[in-house]
Amino acid sequence: MVQVGLLEDNARIAKLCATMLQYAGHHVTVYEHPRECLDALLTEVVGRHVVSSRSVMTRQSATLPIDVLILDLHLPDITGIDVLHSLRADPRTRSLPLIFCTAATPTEVASALTIAPQGRFIEKPFTYQELVAAIDSVLHSTH
């Protein structure tokens, strides 16, 4: 079972995607807003203290709450590209496997893949098989 993070602002698409992933045997955490996702991935709880990713504290033993993130590039307030820049700037999330599930333009997809060349892209609308195959592909390429 894989811990999948899903950053998708469209509630219907998020529910459909989460249902498909759960059917495939994965655990899904849905992030409805980019800030929620970044807060979850770029901060950690140590004991009773919340430590920002920008802390000087060594975090080598810390683990992320997800194994892979499915990222929509069209998001409110903060673009998917901005989320991607934040994730790649942090040592803990720099190598987090990513899947871009989006209806973005080819230029936007190319930009995202330039920042995260190991990422995978699936276009909306997508099938169950495409979604599951993308997760298998991105996880196998990182090992």
Automatic annotation (TrEMBL):
<dbReference type="Pfam" id="PF00072">
    <property type="entry name" value="Response_reg"/>
</dbReference>
<protein>
    <recommendedName>
        <fullName>Response regulatory domain-containing protein</fullName>
    </recommendedName>
</protein>
<dbReference type="InterPro" id="IPR011006">
    <property type="entry name" value="CheY-like_superfamily"/>
</dbReference>
<feature type="domain" description="Response regulatory">
    <location>
        <begin position="3"/>
        <end position="139"/>
    </location>
</feature>
<feature type="modified residue" description="4-aspartylphosphate">
    <location>
        <position position="72"/>
    </location>
</feature>
<dbReference type="InterPro" id="IPR001789">
    <property type="entry name" value="Sig_transdc_resp-reg_receiver"/>
</dbReference>
<dbReference type="GO" id="GO:0000160">
    <property type="term" value="P:phosphorelay signal transduction system"/>
</dbReference>
<keyword id="KW-0597">Phosphoprotein</keyword>
<dbReference type="InterPro" id="IPR050595">
    <property type="entry name" value="Bact_response_regulator"/>
</dbReference>
